[in-house]
Write a structure and sequence with these properties.
The chain is an all-beta fold. Helix content is 0%, strand content 43%. It contains no helices and eleven strands. It has strands spanning 4-7, 10-12, 18-24, 33-39, 46-51, 59-60, 68-72, 79-83, 92-99, 115-116, 120-124. Strands 2, 4, 5, 6, 9, 10 and 11 form a seven-stranded mixed beta sheet that branches. Strands 1-3-8-7 form a four-stranded antiparallel beta sheet, with no helix packed on it. A hairpin with a 7-residue loop joins β5 and β6 (59-60). It is globular. It starts with a strand and ends with a strand. The relative contact order is 0.32.
């Protein structure tokens, strides 16, 4: 399993932006699928974005479509989740997760991902 290190969370006002990053410790992502998930207080874990081995295979939850963008660097050492036009309902702990190349299309949701970051808090309030 990969050790994943997340950073970039924080507190912003509605309409603000943040960029979350996720990097494997001592390795690269190779052909892994990268999932971003979030969990708000009292709510179940929600899938936010799923990026397969190729950039064209990235998908987003309807609730964040057009506001969040997932990307990875060509060296496959870091992935990012750009959060824009943040709203109070986006407040949650955000997690990155790594799975096999087919994780995004497996239909197994979060259980398809074996390695998880420690989570980073995003708080949106005025």
């Amino acid at each position: 399993q990969l050790q994943l290190v997340e950073s970039g969370g924080g507190s912003v006002q509605p309409g603000g932006s943040l960029r979350l990053s996720c990097a494997p410790s001592g390795r690269t992502f190779d052909l892994h699928a990268i999932g971003w998930f979030r969990q708000a207080p009292g709510k179940v874990l929600e899938g936010v974005s799923c990026m397969g081995p190729t950039p064209s295979s990235t998908t987003y939850a309807d609730s964040v479509m057009g506001r969040f963008t997932a990307s990875r660097d060509n060296a496959k050492t870091t992935v990012w989740l750009q959060l824009t036009n943040l709203q109070p309902e986006d407040t949650a702990v955000y997690y990155c997760a790594v799975g096999p190349p087919t994780a995004c299309v497996s239909g197994n949701g979060a259980s398809a991902f074996a390695s998880w970051g420690q989570g980073t808090q995003v708080t949106v309030s005025s």
